[in-house]
Design a protein that fits this description.
The chain is built from six helices and twelve strands. The chain is of the alpha/beta class. The protein folds into two domains: 195 residues, Rossmann fold (3-Layer(aba) Sandwich); 48 residues, no CATH class. The radius of gyration is 18 Å and the shape is globular.
């Protein structure tokens, strides 16, 4: 394996438990978890390089997408590491930049879906906009949505770190997926690995994932029924003018399509 794509969020890093810890407006609480996010990515890169990966592209995929400290990331001599910061507007969003040139993808710091109890910070794409997101009748996490995006360009997902509920769900979806459960949510609390232990296990886990044969490519359904449940009826109405979308209640929009890129485009549009 030569080329790896890594997508990184923050709500699934070790010990995180409160909204202020993911928000740049609260620097005292945010900075330690921005640093942990960076440390877990650095560990993933180190493990991947040790297993033979030559080139890594990392997508910062939380909030402003300008969280990771690039000064704390590096690549060994003769190998490369690039960082994608900010949002381009491309519907691939959290996996912006992934294409068929990558051998595999990994997800760091991911979290349970909106409406689920596996993480006090659980949401899907936008907690402001959506109460729940469903794909073909299944509650859809950001991991599921963007693992399908990776699969749509032929890239298998080999590794995930994040909360236990998400890791358990993802392991049922992708047989052979390597995971590290960093924390488990109980109401508004978490029981978590210590930050240093999370870093150590992520490094070992991704090294193992790269060294082993990758899981089978996730199979995309032939048809997609995508439902967005909004927090506010006013938002649902405003987004109901997306081509092919239709209102099924005051707060719910439905899109039926055979093209997964339509799903991603609708999601990006509706979240703005």
């Amino acid at each position: 394996m030569k080329k790896l794509f890594i997508s990184v969020d923050i709500e699934g890093v070790a010990c995180i438990s409160a909204p202020v810890e993911v928000d740049k407006m609260h620097q005292a609480e945010y900075v330690p978890f921005r640093d942990q996010m960076t440390a877990e990515v650095a560990a993933a890169c180190s493990g991947a390089y040790a297993a033979g990966v030559e080139s890594i592209v990392v997508k910062d995929a939380h909030f402003t997408a300008r969280n990771l400290d690039p000064h704390k990331l590096s690549s060994p001599q003769g190998k490369s590491l690039q960082l994608i910061r900010g949002w381009s507007g491309h519907p691939f969003a959290m996996v912006q930049g992934i294409d068929k040139s990558f051998d595999a993808a990994a997800f760091i710091g991911y979290h349970s879906a909106g409406g689920c109890g596996g993480n006090p910070l659980a949401h899907t794409v936008s907690s402001r906009a959506f109460a729940r997101v469903e794909l073909n009748g299944v509650v859809a996490s950001e991991f599921l949505i963007y693992a399908y995006a990776a699969a749509s360009v032929g890239v298998p997902v080999i590794f995930l770190s994040g909360d236990k509920q998400l890791c358990d769900e993802a392991s049922r979806t992708i047989d052979g997926l390597q995971t590290v459960a960093t924390l488990e949510g109980f109401g508004a609390s978490v029981q978590s690995l210590l930050p240093g232990d999370s870093v150590r296990l992520i490094k070992a886990g991704i090294q193992r994932a790269v060294s082993n044969p990758p899981p089978s490519l996730l199979t995309l359904p032939s048809d997609f029924v995508f439902k967005l449940s909004f927090n506010k009826a006013t938002d649902a109405y405003a987004k109901s003018f997306f081509p092919q979308a239709r209102m099924v209640s005051d707060t719910e929009l439905l899109l039926e399509t055979r093209r997964y890129f339509d799903v991603l485009t609708f999601l990006w549009f509706a979240a703005q």
